[in-house]
């Protein structure tokens, strides 16, 4: 560390001469990590504790180095108060390496104070003054399908994590299904880790899977590092043709109550969480009687009762295994919210909930006829339902917002026929989520800081990463993004989107706020 013990920064009062921001930037550019500022040339001079406090206030949030202050002796003043006032200021220093975009936006491995870095750690870096833009903690998207290995024509680690980084997401946690093999054994996890090596532009974690018959694999998967486990209470819809069969088989089959009891017995008391696709099949109107190109036909085939019945079962099981946190993925139905509140507030059960960007920004009445790119399970519901999801998010019943990014090849979306009933269910918003959410939140007067809680700090807690991610603090990973709230844009093909397959022209409404990159 190289200190400079004789510096005039002239603030407050003469910032046209110099100031804390410009002066400490200049110091840092030459390897100086600490300056001690002289008492004169500022207005007021540092000759009383009150004047010192004025100077400390002016320095707050501006300094790129650590800073101390000399007091001044003039006729008639007492220095005893100044001597005991602790006249120094330390603030976090956040720096970005001088590296062009080419392998993803790289940052220091963790956030340091300038005191920690010293000369050799500092002079290698270029300081990036972002002006009035916001430096935010990188988002953690805890619900992403990247489909590799096995289905890289749908998506892959490289394209998926590039898309994530383009939207300020610095960590993704990848779901166990849609890849071949699924993450249901340690061997399969190792296969996935091998496929991911040297491809990822963000940090990445993995969820394991619970399927019928793999309860013996669960504790070894915990030991191998999966962040938790995902299961389905309804058929997942992803199929494969095994070499031993002449027919398609569900490669990630749903579990029944007996399967769940076996799994929860193994997982209770472990440092893990059990995630539920919370839809439970039940009676519905015959979908064959409706027009398959009409979104309402699909919507009626996945009623809210699918979700409420599933969550009632989860609460029942959680009362038997209360030491295992359970988590509802992609909540869509507002009618399930009172069940969640009762489980948490009255039964004191460890139950957390997520919803998705598309449920908070799209409504069923907006979905055109014959446009199955809007199909997902559970489905996007009406505007009244959406408002109740926002209310639950604001009061803390819903803990976080994720993408459930689930891409596929164009053919599976049935864009030519417009058939909602036959199309793959999944929406791809990786890289767009913060802009979508920010635009909707501004209309409701919701502070931007709340979005960071839902998309970064709470998702970090959920995935067991809060010790090093989900905030800006010394010692945490230096996962930073720069947010420009003033930019407006419209989503079109080839504009700021990174994808594996081909897409049709898509024009959407205007959105506000983008992540800025350093060239």
UniProtKB/TrEMBL annotation:
InterPro entries: Allantoinase, Amidohydro-rel, DHOase/Allantoinase_Hydrolase, Dihydroorotase_CS, DNase_TatD-rel_CS, Metal-dep_hydrolase_composite, Metal_Hydrolase. GO terms for cellular component: cytoplasm. It comes from the Eukaryota. It is an enzyme of class 3 (hydrolase). Keywords: Hydrolase, Metal-binding, Zinc. Residues 135-488 form the Amidohydrolase-related domain. Its cofactor is Zn(2+). Its EC number is 3.5.2.5. It holds the Pfam family Amidohydro_1. One of its GO terms (molecular function) is cobalt ion binding. One of its GO terms (biological process) is allantoin catabolic process. PROSITE patterns: DIHYDROOROTASE_1, TATD_1. Pathway: Nitrogen metabolism; (S)-allantoin degradation; allantoate from (S)-allantoin: step 1/1. Belongs to the metallo-dependent hydrolases superfamily. Allantoinase family. Homotetramer. This is allantoinase. It comes from Rhizoctonia solani.
